[in-house]
Amino acid sequence: MAETQLHDFPSLFSLDGKVAVVTGGSRGLGLSAASALLQAGAAKVFISSRKASTCESACAALNSLPNLRPGAVAVPVPADCATLDGVKHLVSQVSAQTEHVDILLANAGATWGEQFDSHPDAAFAKVMDLNVRGVFNLVREFAPLLARRASVEDPSRVLITASTAGLGIGTIGKQGTYGYSASKAAVIHLGRNLAVELGPRGIAVNSICPGFFPSKMSNGLLEMAGGVERMGKANPMRRLGRPEDIAGVVVYLASRAGAHVNGAAIEIDGGAMWSRGQLDVKL
Ligand SMILES: NC(=O)c1ccc[n+]([C@@H]2O[C@H](COP(=O)([O-])OP(=O)(O)OC[C@H]3O[C@@H](n4cnc5c(N)ncnc54)[C@H](OP(=O)(O)O)[C@@H]3O)[C@@H](O)[C@H]2O)c1
After folding, report:
1. Is ligand 1 within 6 A of the CB of residue 180?
2. Which of 215, 216, 246 to mutate to test the pocket of ligand 1 (most atoms within 8 A of CB)?
3. Owning domain of residue 118
4. Res 92: pLDDT
5. Where are the beta strands (DSSP E) in 133-231?
6. Adjacent-strand bridge partners of 265
7. Considering its fold, how many domains does the chain have in total?
8. Which N-terminal stretch is annotated as signal sequence (predicted)?
9. What is the CATH number for 60?
């Protein structure tokens, strides 16, 4: 029966030979995602963040993974994605080393926590510049490289690291993340617009929405919220996010398995978003 004849099922989640760019790839979620892309078969993964030394050490760690495809390589490309000049610099560094890009993970992000009454204009602008404007600049400037090999059968992919803070309310009060939460809501909607704009060019665009994952960015807030253990226990799945949780969704969306997913925003939070305000009443 036709329904049982899945075309080449063993390669459905493979990224064999793909070329990827990961911004904010030097640590945290971006580094986990880069590791997943390489271990799923990518041939070349460009690792970007502002600091050259951390890009280099991330690449050294990735290049020493034991199970990479022969010749697979992580390449450091430092750049500041909050400015158009920085994005153009990144594109020029990448174009000097590849003629096309299959996967762009726009993951670099910034946050700011401060109460409403004194929440600084400059902090709001900084967060918007990297988390929204920077992502738009990145996708626009990389579009020609993403389109070069893209096709209906094998579309290129843009993945945007958004957040569940862009789907529900982020943090309010003393450590209010008003700009961050608004920026993530904005970038999710930007992703939907780009999905419809770029789909016909063979480029699918999706957002991933992590909940809490321990990282340099989230550790301070996690501590203030009661710590990893307490926050983990409060999650419906009784734990916080792990590197493999990001890895799985990124590989799915970047591979043939995710080829018809476009304009989606996928939560990776153990269902925490839906349990907010839940009444713990024993009936
Ligand atoms: N961890 C969580 O709980 C969580 C939850 C939801 C969403 N997220 C999102 O996940 C993404 C990654 O966060 P993370 O938790 O992995 O944070 P992280 O460990 O602090 O990593 C942030 C990365 O972005 C880079 N970066 C920061 N500013 C940059 C800029 N202007 N240009 C280029 N790169 C820049 C950093 O390197 P440099 O400092 O060297 O530039 C670093 O590589 C962010 O978009 C964040 O909003 C995280």
Report:
1. no
2. 215
3. 15-270
4. 98
5. 156-161, 203-210
6. 207
7. 1
8. none
9. 3.40.50.720
